[in-house]
Amino acid sequence: MPCHTATPQPSPCSRLHPVPPALHPAPAGDALPPKVPHSATHPAGAGDGHCAAEVGCAVWDVLFGHFRHLRGVPPVTVGIFSHELAAADFSPAALRVGHPMLRHLEVQGRVARVQPPYGEPLSYELESGRLLPHCAAAGSRLQLLSCAPAGGAPTPMLVEQTAGGASLYYSLSGGYPLFLRTAEHALLSAEEFSAALQPVRGQGGSLRQLRSATAGLLHVRVLTPHAFLISLFAPQQVGSRGDDGLYSCCGAPYLTLGLSGVPGYAMDLILSSPTAPGTSYHWRRQGHLWHFRRGEAAHSPTLTHRKSLLHPGVWLEEDTLTDPAGRVLATSAVQYRRAPFGQVVEQRVQGSGSAAQCTRYFYGEQPGRADYGRLIRMLLPGGRELVYTHQ
């Protein structure tokens, strides 16, 4: 079978149109509590989520993937850690996938620097393996090992022993861990981790989807510059990966999380599922003082998903965010077509009216050609065009 490669050929970029304003916060609530308890965990391996408001920050995350066959290996989380409620924290670019296997080590002279997915980096002295005095973490150490774990090749490695009892094995040149070994002696390799968790990123590196072997699919959709929606689908709802790089999915998500707010002032998170009442979380910041509130989502904005048939083989799926008065805050739509070579996306629209941002997709339609059934052209908002060639 011939190998197909796609090479984008961009044309000059055009200026984008404005989009609808972000969702405004509700009035301030009670003073922040130290924690919000965890909700029940879904059998598929994804949790309803965990939110917290601590001194000087707002935190939320959701469990998405586990390694239950390996004792002591922590689950995967997806979330945001915000110190200032900056504008970038309301974008999918702020989403962080959390797991020890995503820690990154860099050797700088006599110092080894480890950057976790969340929070501040840790710096170790290479000779002693001790944390440098300015690092807040306690109980972690770094040491040089002469061979790989579990009888591996005699290759020198750097081993980070964390406060939780797990050990992470790095190459001497740094990078991501090659192995994780738990206190219960379970071993997780980088290859196993990559096979179990497959992120799909868009332009600029923002997370678009996260495919988990145990939890299913996490799908991210931008609604406005300061609002986006996360939908979680079970493994049996996930289909194949299309030419746009995204996995297809069928049916309604079992959990949705909508994040929006006003940068520098407030953040709102709405969590809902078809089988349980919705829950809203609200953070508000005034200088160094933070307020946090959790409540029923009945008085919060409502997200409506609608699917409509345009004509045989072509349908539209729309998401609309409305406030309690019924006013539309944000909209997005995806038009699908059932082609002879499979289901494809014809266009995506964010916003409405003069503020709508439309992206159109075109595919090779002639059987026998190398580009048959593959993406050959994208027309982006503002007129920018990407052309793909296949060999």
Taken from the alpha-carbon principal axes, the silhouette is: globular
Number of helices: 1
Largest sheet: 8 strands, antiparallel
Distance between the termini: 12 Å
State the secondary-structure class: mainly beta
- List unreliable stretches of 5+ residues: 1-46
Radius of gyration: 23 Å
The helix content, as a percent range, equals under 10%
Strand segment count: 30
What value does the average pLDDT take?
A: 76
Approximate strand percentage: over 45%
Which strand order spans the largest sheet, edge to edge or round the barrel?
1-30-29-28-27-26-25-24
Which secondary structure elements does this structure contain, and how are they paired or packed?
Blueprint: E1 6-10, E2 50-54, E3 57-63, E4 77-82, E5 96-98, E6 104-108, E7 111-115, E8 122-125, E9 141-145, E10 157-161, E11 167-171, E12 179-181, E13 187-189, H1 190-196, E14 197-201, E15 207-212, E16 216-224, E17 227-233, E18 238-241, E19 247-249, E20 255-262, E21 266-273, E22 276-286, E23 289-296, E24 302-311, E25 314-322, E26 328-339, E27 342-350, E28 357-363, E29 375-379, E30 385-390
Antiparallel strand pairs: 1-30, 2-3, 3-4, 4-5, 6-7, 7-8, 9-10, 10-11, 11-12, 12-13, 14-15, 15-16, 16-17, 17-20, 18-19, 20-21, 21-22, 22-23, 24-25, 25-26, 26-27, 27-28, 28-29, 29-30
